């Protein structure tokens, strides 16, 4: 009851006109920045942080938080429509989302994405409201050893889950991990695999890599397909046509709820963030979902799972930040910097000393989430027009966006080169029927793996026994072994049964 | 073409494994900078070899069954040219940006691509080029304050 009282007092603060305007402005900006390739939530929040210097802290954080979570909505737009994920959490959305667009169901994909984002975000918010401090403590029980195993779990699952041939998926995973090791070592800071190029000292940038492998690759596909292949999509679309029918809604609801809870959990893990949440929830859906066999071929569940999870994670990432002063992702680290800038100290005392601030923020997130879903759904008919633009116009425009998007991340032409090389790599992978998504996922997860292994081995003074000590570690090891061994047995069993029949 | 990526992975994996081992897998009771690179390099070697072996088996069977026609060869050539064309276009655009700046260079790319490759009308090509360039300038340069390269000629004015 105390929580409800605080929440309602928070609503009184959040519903003040200037806070509502801040939430609307942040929400719209986040949708736009999220949809632009190359500019993720981190860039959006970082760019607008200086504008909030003279604002009231509650209004400022409401605006910045709105940019953060609405970014998750916006990232899906470009992923679904033109196969360019707006930012890393939308990589998984592109797999099924763009296939739905190619099938002429862009409206349904966008609607699924918006509804799942809203439901996932709401689940994350409810968890943040009711269990914020407690959940943050659970997240903290995951030390470097447990986190190492979580990342290994993600890496081992990728290859098996995406694509038809696990070996091909695992090769893509290995190459993604190889690319991620370029740059300075996390332990000693020594340069490795930079080939004398200064630009590679900080590693290969993720955004140009994604733009090259998805966006520019799509341009090449459109050119190769030729004009006769360009017009497969629906001609006119209203919101009503994009709505899901009862059967379709019944299909995505369990997926969305599952992924929402799972994403909320991943969001509170230190350093995991929305990207990992969307990756793992997609993998989970491919394992246990009712429509798992069709995942990857363009089904609404493939959009619902990552979108619900990344929004839930974006919301729940506020739990460790507010209650323990530990950011759950890089964007929440910037937000935490903002809190400090306004003279607030994130941590257990924040809830006690500044309840009007904390509950004002949490309440505003409920309002902001509703604003986002309404705006996102209203935008669908306009967004769908993008797929009706003839290829002759779309090809040069996407190419220009790919070039500027790659350049904008670090403001260097070198990244345009990275984008081109990535696209070439994606073409070669396509010729060999090797899926590109595992490469990107491994690229994101490997630096985490290296960081956590270093920390775990450092704590245990060079002993690997730390990975077998806690109950959590043992459970995770059993799950990893099951993931590696079971698919092999299943395929052998299927082959034998097929031969017998 | 199917074998290019696995062969490339094999070479890269071998380089990563050797360099990783040289950098040190285990240094003073800690994980060395070469631990993860040598591990993933080794895995890349194993997986690319497995794929190459299965591809080799498949191709031997297919080679015995199929004859390569001239149409197939021409089709492959067209695909290759169409694949390489956007790469060449972007490289030329970037080279041009050193002279006239990125925004103008991208505008020129859109205009020439639509006119020469897509055979679109002059008016629609011009309109698309101008609108896209102005949008890019307003969003990135003005609003988000991303300084786009201006080029030598622009610096003169």
Helix and strand arrangement:
The complex is a heterodimer of chains A (501) and B (157).
Chain A: H1 2-14, H2 17-35, H3 41-48, H4 57-82, H5 91-102, H6 106-140, H7 144-161, H8 166-180, E1 183-184, E2 191-192, H9 206-225, H10 239-242, H11 246-268, H12 273-288, H13 300-316, H14 318-324, H15 330-341, H16 348-353, H17 355-388, H18 391-410, H19 414-431, H20 437-459, H21 471-500
Antiparallel strand pairs in A: 1-2
Chain B: H1 4-23, E1 26-27, E2 30-31, H2 35-65, H3 70-100, H4 102-117, H5 122-143, H6 151-156
Antiparallel strand pairs in B: 1-2
Instruction: Quickly give the structural class of chain B.
Output: mainly alpha
Please give the radius of gyration of chain A in angstroms: 22 Å
Q: Tell me how many strands of chain B there are.
A: 2
- Give the helix level of chain B as a range of percent: over 70%
Low-confidence stretches of chain A: 228-235
Uncertain ranges of chain B: none
| Main beta-sheet annotation of chain B | 2 strands, antiparallel
- Indicate the overall shape of chain B: flat
Q: What is the overall number of helices of chain A? A: 21
What distance lies between the first and last C-alpha atoms of chain B, to the nearest angstrom?
49 Å
Strand numbers in spatial order across the main sheet of chain B: 1-2
Main sheet of chain A: which strands, in order across? 1-2
Model description:
The complex is a heterodimer of chains A (501) and B (157). Chain A has 501 residues and is an all-alpha fold. Chain A is built from 21 helices and 2 strands. Chain A has a two-stranded antiparallel sheet. Chain A starts with a helix and ends with a helix. Chain B has 157 residues and is an all-alpha fold. Chain B is 80% helix and 3% strand. Chain B is built from 6 helices and 2 strands, in the order H-E-E-H-H-H-H-H. In chain B, strands 1-2 form a two-stranded antiparallel ribbon. In chain B, helix 3 packs antiparallel against helix 4. Chains A and B meet through helix 8, helix 9, helix 18, helix 19 and helix 20 of A and helix 1, strand 2, helix 2, helix 3 and helix 4 of B.
